[in-house]
Structure to design on (706 residues):
């Protein structure tokens, strides 16, 4: 079910033909019996439907952070900034290796939506499926969420796409620079008689695909090829309804970087290897498609119904000789997941003070895990008795279903007080069958014209990611080099959380906005994830109990052409007693954690993000920075890595010449001071490999719109 790489070219070609056809519209005669609607009517209709779509959701009582196109363009890498790097500029977002993010001390547990439609999660990997190039608005919601948000609740990342509704044209962009980087992006957009489209295709090659296991500026065996395609199409049926089609595909190939100087532990029929000469690779594919009907009725009802499908596939291919020599285990792993489902949302303005919202979600997932693991035979004491390896296969599959319904009321209780209350009922039918009724309440109070208070409570139900849960027949590996020390393998349970959030926003002056937010989470069956073994695929497990709490300070300044922001977060997350997948841990770890609350491996006490930008005529100067006090390491996460700061900057300029017309350029420097810092050191619960942050790098971007 692989998607050929040349499909990216096909998408670009289709878009080019569509653009050319649009440019030649003057040669086509439309019959007088079916006149085209005036474009102004279409624009008015599209804007009205956009407003109705926005009305399906509410942020009452939540903590929210917003990025628009201008905010993204002002970042040092502009539209070439990866999706995760944009989110790192928001409060409460912590950097980790392999493209991971932690929002408010959760491991993953992020929900992605496009135009309000939930995108089923894919198998976690290094590559990015979503892209900033087609982002018109990006909203991050955290805290006590309204009842319409469920399953993945650490953060709601809601992306509003660009479209061709109000413009016709396209844009070409190329970036070159350090690590042999070449990244090209092509987009086309346009509209005709109620139909509009936006198509984006991108390709990326570089030699820093994932974080290096060493401090070297030039990692060994770390190349990547990445293809991305995205298409948005909509057609206005009438003044009250439209159909939307969204399609995307990402195919990412990664080399796993080598860590030279490691000591061989085994031989394969007398043969050995060097750790600087391994050839491990990982291929990832994520594909999804959505068909949605969105509109309004004369009875003040707004609605959106969406059919969706997503296919996700990850292939890890080991270096058979090398992995056996250094770890005694070489495992080929293929994980795949196919999800189909239906989502419906509706809102009804009952009167001037009450707006009712309700909806449902149904999905079916077919998850498969196929492994072929080469090992050595051992005796009863764990000693290798043969240097001739043999393979053990373990193939599993699981069908899993998720269901939910919700109902909520947004009540304008007073001129200054808005309350949103409701509940949702979630059902998970997977490796563990479970359900929960989850009440929610959130409120916003206008203390003054410049000061707003918000507070909320939410009960959360978070099933483990089915695509990452695989029933491992651990007894198959008895008397081999892959035999676990512990043979207990309890199933992963859904996480259940009581979440409290309170915050204040204050407009200090017309140019300065300040915010302070605090949260507390009381968690049962806390879900965490770890990377166990050589394959860089994460596996979930439970702590019986957990707690997480923190405080976020936000500030922003905007006057004329100068902008600045500063976000500071202090937080803590702990858990006790490993309650599932115990075979992944040593007996010493299990014994210690059973009697102690330990820091989660991704717990970082202090996190800071900051940025400035200034536009002078046609030149924009930008800089941003992230600082972290260090993720946890050591036995049972009892210590933490040193703090670090990474500073990036850029200069962007728009040229306009008689020969070339208008085009824009950008010169960027990442990690300006070339700070060497470790994100991971290979120790800690569920951490087996070191990763360093990127060294100083230089990039040049040239773009032209048409």
């Amino acid at each position: 079910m692989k998607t050929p790489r040349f499909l990216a070219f096909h998408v670009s070609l289709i878009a080019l033909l569509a653009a050319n056809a649009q440019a030649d519209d003057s040669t086509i005669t439309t019959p007088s019996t079916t006149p085209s609607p005036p474009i102004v009517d279409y624009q008015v209709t599209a804007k009205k439907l956009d407003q109705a779509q926005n009305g399906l959701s509410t942020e009452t009582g939540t903590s929210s952070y917003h990025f628009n196109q201008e905010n993204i363009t002002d970042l040092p890498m502009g539209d070439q900034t990866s999706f995760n790097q944009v989110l790192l500029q928001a409060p409460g977002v912590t950097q980790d290796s392999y493209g991971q993010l932690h929002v408010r001390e959760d491991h993953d547990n992020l929900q992605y939506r496009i135009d309000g439609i939930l995108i089923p999660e894919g198998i976690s990997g290094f590559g990015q499926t979503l892209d900033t190039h087609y982002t018109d608005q990006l909203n991050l919601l955290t805290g006590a969420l309204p009842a319409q948000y469920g399953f993945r609740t650490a953060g709601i990342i809601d992306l509003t796409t660009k479209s061709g509704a109000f413009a016709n044209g396209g844009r070409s962009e190329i970036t070159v620079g350090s690590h042999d980087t070449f990244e090209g992006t092509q987009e086309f957009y346009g509209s005709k008689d109620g139909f509009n489209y936006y198509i984006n295709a991108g390709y990326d090659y570089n030699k820093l695909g994932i974080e290096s296991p060493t401090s070297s500026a030039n990692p060994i065996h770390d190349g990547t090829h990445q293809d991305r395609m995205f298409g948005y199409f909509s057609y206005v049926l009438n003044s009250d309804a439209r159909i939307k089609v969204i399609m995307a595909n990402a195919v990412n190939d990664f080399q796993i970087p080598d860590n030279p100087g490691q000591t061989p532990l085994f031989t394969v029929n007398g043969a050995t290897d060097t750790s600087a000469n391994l050839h491990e690779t990982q291929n990832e594919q994520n594909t999804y498609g959505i068909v949605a009907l969105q509109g309004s009725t004369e009875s003040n009802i707004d609605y959106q119904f969406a059919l969706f499908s997503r296919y996700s596939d990850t292939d890890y291919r080991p270096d058979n000789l090398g992995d056996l020599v250094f770890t005694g285990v070489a495992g080929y792993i293929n994980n795949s997941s196919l999800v189909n489902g239906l989502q419906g949302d509706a809102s009804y303005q009952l009167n001037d003070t009450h707006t009712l919202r309700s909806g449902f979600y149904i999905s079916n997932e077919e998850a498969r895990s196929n492994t072929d693991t080469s090992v050595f035979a051992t005796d009863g004491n764990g000693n290798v008795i043969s240097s001739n390896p043999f393979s053990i296969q373990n193939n599993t599959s699981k069908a899993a279903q998720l269901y939910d319904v919700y109902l909520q009321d947004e009540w304008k209780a007073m001129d200054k007080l808005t309350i949103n209350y409701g509940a949702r009922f979630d059902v998970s039918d997977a490796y563990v069958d479970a359900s929960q009724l989850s009440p929610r309440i959130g409120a916003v109070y206008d203390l003054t014209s410049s000061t707003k208070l918000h507070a909320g409570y939410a009960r959360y139900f978070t099933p483990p990611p089915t695509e990452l849960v695989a029933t491992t027949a651990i007894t198959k590996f008895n008397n081999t080099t892959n035999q676990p020390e512990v043979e207990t393998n309890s199933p992963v349970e859904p996480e259940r959380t009581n979440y409290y959030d309170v915050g204040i926003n204050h407009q200090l002056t017309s140019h300065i906005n300040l915010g302070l937010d605090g949260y507390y989470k009381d968690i049962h069956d806390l879900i965490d994830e770890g990377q166990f073994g050589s394959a860089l695929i994460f596996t979930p497990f439970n702590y019986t109990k957990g707690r997480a709490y923190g405080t976020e300070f936000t500030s922003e300044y905007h006057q004329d052409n100068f902008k600045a922001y500063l976000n500071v977060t202090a937080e803590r997350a702990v858990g006790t007693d490993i309650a599932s997948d115990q075979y992944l841990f040593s007996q010493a770890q299990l014994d210690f954690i059973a009697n102690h609350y330990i820091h989660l491996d991704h717990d970082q006490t202090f996190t800071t993000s900051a940025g400035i930008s200034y536009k002078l005529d046609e030149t924009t100067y930008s800089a941003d920075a992230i600082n972290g006090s260090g993720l946890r390491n050591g036995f049972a996460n009892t210590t933490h890595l040193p703090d670090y700061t990474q500073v990036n900057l850029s200069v962007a300029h728009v040229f306009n010449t008689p020969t070339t017309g208008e085009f824009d350029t950008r010169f960027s420097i990442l990690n300006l001071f070339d700070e060497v810092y470790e994100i991971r050191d290979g120790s800690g619960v569920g951490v087996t490999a070191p990763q360093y942050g990127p060294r100083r790098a230089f990039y040049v971007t040239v773009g032209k719109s048409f």
Remarks:
- The two ends are 36 Å apart (CA to CA).
- Confidence is low (pLDDT under 50) at residues 1-40.
